[in-house]
Amino acid sequence: MGINVEHISKSYHVVRREKGLLGSVKQFFHPHYTIINAVNDISFNIETGKIVGFIGENGAGKSTTIKMMVGILTPDRGTIRINDEMVGVNKKKIAYQIGVVFGQRTQLWWDIPIIESFRLFKDMYRIPDQEYKENLDIFQEILGLNEFMNQPTRHLSLGQRMRADLCAALLHNPSVLFLDEPTIGIDVATKEKMRNFIREINRRKLTTVLLTTHDMKDIEELSDELIVIDRGGLIYQGNLQNLKTRYGGMSTITLKCCPETAGEIQKSVSSKEINCRYDDALYLVFDKKKYSAQEVLRDMVNQFTFSDIQVEDSCLEDIVKKIYYEIDNGGCI
């Protein structure tokens, strides 16, 4: 059960443009193509009930992979199964098992009230009356839909539309939810509502969620596991905490102090492998494998006065940047 992806690949044939009028005429009669490998032999498994972050740089192949998983595109090679059903073989059966939200597109009807769009989905998916009512009541409560249920989609803000799209994708109780940039461009308060909603639906219904986003806070707050792809290939699948342990080995201590104190501290740690930077506060960056925060601070707190002390580990965004930097420079993970 869950999602099983085995050795999928997808390439595109893109017309190679020739220069000038003569080149355009030649291209019209005898076009030449360049092959773009968008996805190259990717395999992974997602267990039922997991929330998995799916990340990569722009052009890495994320959207192409999701479109193959939901049946919009057909892989050149490989197979995709959702709850043991082969994607592309029985499209109707797969459609009942999945919900999809694309942040840049809406599945709602543009000129009719939101509630009417929901009723159309009820008829399309043949949702029983009681199930439809129960789901709609839950979604309205958590997502706060009541204020705009009778407005047409074209009158909604982006945040309101995204909440309505999320509701529409889950009305038929799909076992798998695909989210492609669901929080793009929306405000902090709406993001938090959507995160709470995704967590709650996952808890109540054990819905499997594949989340694609460039917002690392979405990944950190929601995901159990992480899949990282780059240039069409899989470079990491595993526990989010394991990735942090492996690549997030740096900690930062922020000390609020005067410039004179900062200068004295910089001198005192010059013999250690601690990076110092002063900008209204003193920032000490060190390897957690070599020093603990207590060891770094032990002598300082006895000698100097600070108005504030903060200790932070590397955030996921810094870790992902480090991974891409290593890959760009010929490394691997």
From TrEMBL:
InterPro entries: AAA+_ATPase (IPR003593), ABC_transporter-like_ATP-bd (IPR003439), ABC_transporter-like_CS (IPR017871), ABC_transporter_ATP-binding (IPR050763), P-loop_NTPase (IPR027417). SMART domains: AAA. Keywords: ATP-binding, Nucleotide-binding, Transport. The keyword Transport applies. It holds the Pfam family ABC_tran. One of its GO terms (molecular function) is ATP binding. Residues 3-256 form the ABC transporter domain. This is ABC-type uncharacterized transport system, ATPase component. It comes from Ruminiclostridium cellobioparum subsp. termitidis CT1112. The lineage of its organism: Bacteria, Bacillati, Bacillota, Clostridia, Eubacteriales.
